[in-house]
Amino acid sequence: MLKINILGGREVKRQGVGSVTITVLLRTIERVTQTKCLTCECEIILSVFYNPNVSAGYLYGESRYSSTTFYGTLKRLTETGVVICQTDPNDRRSNVYSLNDQFQREIGELVQTKLVSV
């Protein structure tokens, strides 16, 4: 049995499949088909889902979008309430980001029921 690592997060065991992330899979599809699958919004949401309470700098480092696009998108996601911004408890000068509870729960259920059962 080999492990499938879905977006750097929870691991599930599957036979005959190597370790791959959703982000890597979508970027490969984009490269091969010359289409756009992974938007900046999607990158941020998936990164924050699997890495809650991370800094904007960390999220930007994982992104392939320009700083203007990235930070504008992060601001919109925060303003709409999809992403929650809180003061970092370890460094009160900076902020950390996570998904709101509803989105965290719904995406978690989707990953468990749909992606794991593939």
Descriptive overview:
This protein is an alpha+beta fold. It has two domains: about 1-40, no CATH class; about 40-100, Winged helix-like DNA-binding domain superfamily/Winged helix DNA-binding domain (Arc Repressor Mutant, subunit A, Orthogonal Bundle), CATH 1.10.10.10. About 50% of the residues lie in helices and about 15% in strands. It contains five helices and four strands; from the N terminus they run E-E-H-H-H-H-E-E-H. The strands form two sheets. A two-stranded antiparallel sheet has the order 1-2. A two-stranded antiparallel ribbon has the order 3-4. Strand 1 (about 1-5) and strand 2 form a beta hairpin. It starts with a strand and ends with a helix.
Secondary structure category: alpha+beta
CATH topology-level name of the largest domain = Arc Repressor Mutant, subunit A
H/E element sequence: EEHHHHEEH
Q: What ranges have pLDDT less than 50 throughout 5 or more consecutive residues?
A: 1-19
Distance between the termini: 15 Å
CATH architecture of the largest domain: Orthogonal Bundle
Which descriptors would you attach to this protein?
49% helix, 15% strand, two-stranded antiparallel ribbon, Arc Repressor Mutant, subunit A, 4 strands, alpha+beta, 118 residues, two-stranded antiparallel sheet, single chain, 2 domains
